[in-house]
Every structure is written in C-alpha cells, then in structure tokens.
Amino acid sequence: MSNPIIHKQRIFKKTIKIPGDKSISHRSIILGSIAKGKTEVTNFLNGEDCICTQKAFESLGVEIETNFHDSENPIVKIQGKGMEFLRAPNNDIYLGNSGTGMRLLTGLFSGLNFKSVLTGDESLSSRPMKRVIDPLSLMGANIESSEGKAPLIIYGSPHLKGINYKSPVSSAQVKSSLLLAGLNADGVTTIIEPEKSRDHSERMLDYFQSPISYHHGSLEVSIRRLEKPLQAQRVKVPGDISSAAFFMVAAAIVEDAEVELLNVGINPTRTGIIDVLTMMNIDFSIHNLREEGKEPIADIIVKSSNIKAGEIRGDIIPRLIDEIPVIAILAAQAKGTTVIKNAEELKVKESNRIATTVSMLKQLGVKVEETDDGMIIEGLEGREFPGGDASIVVIDSKGDHRIAMSSAIAGLHSAKPVEILKSEFVNTSFPSFFKYLGLSDVLR
Ligand code: S3P
C-alpha cells in the first residue's frame, strides 16, 4: 500500500464517534479473563495492541468471542472461569507494540502457577521492563529478562507477598502491574506514586468487585489477595481521549473547522489535554456529561481558534503524556513560544518521543529546541507549516503511531503535502484514523 499523503484543507467539518479507549480495552480483556462469568465488552478497541492481549488470554485457554463486523461498535465476549483455570501457554506470547500488554501481563503472570515467555516487536523489545521487574521481584516474583528488556521469562509463583512500593515514576503500567500481582500476594500490596497516573485499573478492579482500596485523586492505592473470584461485568468502553486529541487539534488549526467528538472518556486522570485547550485559548465546549462503568464520558465540540502559546509542565504531564506529539502541533500553530518540561517519560514510549516529535516539527519547518525533558516550540501564529526546500514534506513516523497521526494532522494546514512513512502503525491504537481524516484510499 502506498504511503498516505495529506493535503491542506480549508474546511474541516465532521462528527466522529471516537473508537474505544486503548487502556480500558486492555483492562477489560484482562479482568474479564480472570473473572467468573461472561463479560461483555462493547466499543472495544480492535486495534493491534488490544488484540495481542486478547490472543494472549486465548492462549491461556480463555474462550473469547469477537464481533468486529460493526466497525462503530466492536464487541468482545469473554467466558471467564476464574484465575485458577488459566493454564500454561504452549508457545511464547507475542505482545506486538504494546507496553501496556507486556507490563500488565508480567504482573499478573508473576503470581500464576506456570511459566510464560513474553515477546514483542522491535520497539517493545527496546523499552525498559526493569520498572516492573524490580518491584515484582521484591514481591517474590521470578522474572528473567535480557538486561531489563523483553523477551521476559516469567516463572509464576502463587507465593508472592504484598509490598509497600513508592514508585519513582508516575506510570499506570507499573501501578497496574503491581495491582494485578497483588491479587495473588499475601497481605496488602500498596503503591504510592509521585503524581497521579491514569486510574482505569483502580476503577475497573472496583467495578469487578475486587478487594481494592483507593480514593479518587489520592496518590496511594492498595489491594489484597483475592479471596473470591472477580465478578464478570458488562463494560462499555468510552472513546479514547488520546485518539480524540488528534481531531481536537485538527479543528483548532484548520481555517474553517468544527469537529464534534462523540463518546469521549473524560476521566480526570486523562484530561490534561482539555486543560491545555483552555490554556491555549481553543474554542471548545463539553456536552452530555454521563458515566458508564465508573468512567465519565462526554461529547466535545472544537472549532477553529486563535491559538495562544503556554507552558506545560509538572503534575499535568502524566494526564496528557500520550497527547504531547499532537499538542506540539497545536503549539507550533500558536502565537508565542510554548515550553514543554518534565516530560522525560516521553523518551521510553513507542519511540523516543522527545526526539521524534522535535524531528517531525523540524521537517514541517517549525523552529524548535530539544531539551532534556521536553522542548521549546516557536509558534507560527496560524501560518501554514512551511516545510523545507523540497516540494513535499516526508515524515518518518519511526513506527510510532502517535507521530504518524500527529504528522497527518499537521498536513491539514501545511503549505506542502505531507507524506507519512510507516503509517501502518496507526493500527495499533486507531485503525480507522485515516478513514475519519477523509483519506479513503488509505482505508485499512
Ligand atoms: C498506559 C499508561 C501510560 C500510557 C500508555 C498506556 C496504560 O504509560 O503512556 O499509552 O494503559 O496503563 P506509562 O504507564 O508508561 O506512563
């Protein structure tokens, strides 16, 4: 398939039902597979990352039925029998590009009574796993790695013990990994974070009736060993605010734009992007606030805006960490200079996202300075991205889905067409992205 090429749009008016949240879809498969009874998941994200997690549990003997024919509402039904019915996989478990899949399963499998081997693609195999291996080892887990990286060999043991862990990073993957291990650990497992990371695991573990204890907004969460099985539930996955963010920025930067985003998850641990829209003077409104399965949801309308620069730093960072590449596109269209700080975690995402975001902006002709924990972006004050000397801007996504999508959004307001290399990686989190962008020739 040829590479997508995005051309400038003067008008961008759309209504989009946002596909399911990636983090919540992963967790629905994991909890549905260890619960007793039938868990039905609607608006499941049928992207490659979550499908790897689904396949992982199928390889442990869990019956999972999928219906992805209605692309507006992919459904998954999981016939859970309880954790004790999970059996050793016959083969290595491949988790593709997914850090969430690998880190969460490492925690869960550490406390189960079998050996498993977790592998991933080139990007995942280069990402740090010590951040889960170290605390899990303190709990008594036995994990072999290749110098802290995948493949991971997990010698599961039902004799883990609870720990009190002060995490050096604000990471929902680390926290969730320990919570899942804690379900099979003696005593209490407590995790304390420096800043609050997304709390979907806490909310869903509570919804499935696990012995979890936490307060919204608190940096501390505890869980006890599971005495009775989790109870299967119906899960309606909210739309992924990280996917919605691309179209929020598209609406803000195109000259005559109005985008209505339906069914967007607005869990406060994820809404840093909304705070940034306010700070950067974006014309938006929030409607139809509601709650489903302990997660808040709303519809959001965003319009063309006079964008102002701002400073993005401190405890907002974990609440918008995945949105930074596309926020950088927004900042590059602002009046003034935007500073992004305290975002060193970007270096260990699907790519080194400080480097790949800065390189994307440079290709687009933006003045940007890379710093050790972020970047400084000089805004174009609404002028089209100029690009370089060539007649087309070519951006290598480096296999990072969020760089590919952010580059495509920039193309909507670029003086020269923007061609994206390795765009197929959008399938990890947002397979219908190019369809919603209006590029039917790159339909996947
Ligand atoms: C995720 C947590 C975040 C986020 C990732 C999904 C999750 O990673 O960047 O896309 O589902 O728990 P970290 O835990 O590394 O911050």
Give the full name of the CATH homologous superfamily of the largest domain. Answer: Enolpyruvate transferase domain
Number of spatially distinct domains: 2
| Strand tally | 25
List segments where confidence is low: pLDDT < 50 over at least 5 consecutive residues.
none
- CATH domain class name of the largest domain: Alpha Beta
Strand content: 25-35%
Mean pLDDT: 97
- Major β-sheet strand ordering: 2-17-19-18
Give a list of the ligands. shikimate-3-phosphate
**What is the helical fraction, as a range of percent?**
25-40%
In angstroms, what separates the terminal alpha carbons?
10 Å
Question: Using only CA atoms, what is the Rg?
Answer: 21 Å
Please identify, by name, the CATH architecture of the largest domain. Answer: Alpha-beta prism
The largest sheet is: 4 strands, mixed
Question: Structural class of the helices, strands and pairings?
Answer: alpha/beta
Number of separate helices: 12
Q: Might you state the CATH topology name of the largest domain?
A: UDP-n-acetylglucosamine1-carboxyvinyl-transferase, Chain
| Apparent shape | globular
